[in-house]
Amino acid sequence: MELKFYIESGIIESFVLGLASEAEVEELEHMRKLYPELNTEVEFVERRLERAAFDEPAMPPAQVRDRVLQKIRWEQGHAYSDPASNYTFINIQPKDGSHITVHRWWKIFFIIFFIMSKVFLFLAIFYYLKYRMSQDKQGNNLPHKVKQEQIQIARV
Amino acid sequence: MVLQLVPMRERADDVMVRVFTWSFQHIGTFQTSGHKTLFTWLMRKARELAIKEALPETALTGSELMKQEEGMLQRFYLILPADQQQVFRLSYFKGLSITTIARLLALPEEQINNILGDSMKSFRQFLKDTWN
Fold first, then answer.
1. Does ipTM surpass 0.85 in this model?
2. CA count, 13 A, side-chain hemisphere, A152
């Protein structure tokens, strides 16, 4: 009699829909051990729900099946691949002769090369400007020297 | 069943792919899940994944949106009294816990539990009336 109240409380429906709390699920599991007839009731509820859903099916498109199989095959391939096996891997990446493959160290080398070229370029411009400034200074002093030389010649 | 939770065809298809992939990988857990039929075991996982896929309610507009009222669970939801409707919607369709629902509705958890219990009794009757 108590079992009838327990069943009528909707606990099985709650479990089947996934709304029961962990404590309720544990309790239901315990009750199923104590009263095996509850298993039959669980099956009845599940069958009812299944019939209800199948009465108004919304079929997924056929591509869903292909996508599932593809995903399973892909994940299975990873899960069961043995690195020690003597497999032959074929690189399916197309190489038409216009592309080359280089070691990853080349990337670091090119970055350093690029930075260094910028530094040298900066230094080259900097020293060129410095050189020009010193040249200009020398150029400004030149007329003064020429005058002095002219005076000396006149005295002679 | 998924379309009632994720009313967009493409997203629902994504959920289905994930459900079946998961079921293939975890078929061993069916025995210990407590379920008697594969369908309800799948349905439970589908709901779990569909809830994760759920969109904000404001985003659910446009032509790609499916008619949610057509589903069996939606029809059941519509026949419930207002308080049960609210709790069932937040619990089943939104996947919220009793504690969160109690906070949302500013009611004690005990009361939410009772309301949800009443809706489960109604659901039992709803199933028995039509598909016994």
1. yes
2. 6
